[in-house]
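Title: Prediction job returns without error message
Component: structure pipeline
Severity: low
Priority: P3
Assignee: unassigned

Description:
Job completed but the reporter wants confirmation the result is attached to the right record. Sequence as submitted:
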Amino acid sequence: MRRYREDSSATLQSSDIGMLQRWPRLADSGVDQEFLAWLERRVRKISCSVDRIALAEMRSWHLDASTGNIKHSSGRFFTIEGLHTRTTHGTVAEWSQPIISQPEIGILGLLVRKHNGTLQCLIQAKMEPGNAKMMQLSPTVQATRSNYTRAHHGSATRYLEYFTDPQDHTVLVDVLQSEQGSWFLRKRNRNMIVLVEEDFAVDDGYRWVDVRDLRRLLRVEQLINMDTRSVLSCLPDGERGEPDTTRLLRWFTGVKSRHEVATRRVPLRGIEGWRYGPERITHDSGLYFDIVGVCVTAADREVLEWDQPMLSPRGQGVVSFVVKNFDGVAHLAVRARFQAGVLDAAELGPTVQCTPANYLQHPPRFLDYVLGASADRILFDTVLTEEGGRFYHSENRYMLIEADEDFPVALPPEFCWASVHQLEALLRHGYYVNVEARSLLACLQAVRCGA
């Protein structure tokens, strides 16, 4: 198989990269030494590599002759299709793009237990082909339906039964949540947290960790994966009563009602503005993202070798909430985020969510404010990666910025102040809070508990 490299990061080898070389900030994380020793063992044990290959050279995926859509030979997993969008929102009224279509619902499941008066989470050290540092800390179960029903003919998913058949266990969280609406077409995953009481043997690839330590590790770049952040954000934070969300939801409904977003599937080959080649699909401007192919070998996965297409973003993104206290209560400046791939046109997103390189002439509102924040107003600032199973080296700089006295109390029409408690209440329901905002809420949990 011919393999090509466009830069020095195109091929990744894991065999001799130590824990502190991958995540230097771990040394100052305050996490106990037993956990660090376990993580070092896992880093040294994994053996995997990811090579960029031409789309035309993928063995298990084929390019449909009539549409150019990219499909797996089994008909399972996901497809890469074309999507055409028309909208009355924003400055661009119409466009076409590649998009990942994955209609099946996966499980993102976290087992928790009470141990010595502390809540602990069972996490796993998992390799994903799109991770720049290969391994990350994932939920107990992170699997698509194709994977956990073993469409790949690989090994079974560990601990799956706790989520498909909880029986006498206490289910703390069970909610369908969306993922990146600009890159996925109506993708949903079942976010679950299950409380267990009995002891059971834990495989070496898994580890119980205090929830406080897990939140503390969010400050380590590219260590806690997107799925863990999403589930962790849904973890109930005590019994504080139900907040009044009437005003917030009335504003949100009004914003959605003022705009239309109409989408239709189109053949991937020939969509306007995109170049479709045998090696990759890319935008004429060189911006946004590419569709690329990878070949993967991994000793610790259900399947030892496979190839697949991936979405490779161009440039690092910025995702940020501006935080302001009103009468001692922390509020976040949320934005109604319209995206082509979400189920209901828009979800509640962060104050800023963009890739700055895509907006050099007209930066999004408040981007300059966030990037220009003084050090004393930065509550959280860490580069975290997105879904490593579908996105290749997708990185966002996650930031929480404390507003100064000059930040406006009266926000533009597509923004609204929402208390943290209100957003946490909405997380008990699907399709209100987008995945980037959920990641930031997990980061905010770390700040609030002093982690």
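Comment from assignee: result matches the submitted record. DSSP finds ten helices and 26 strands in the chain.
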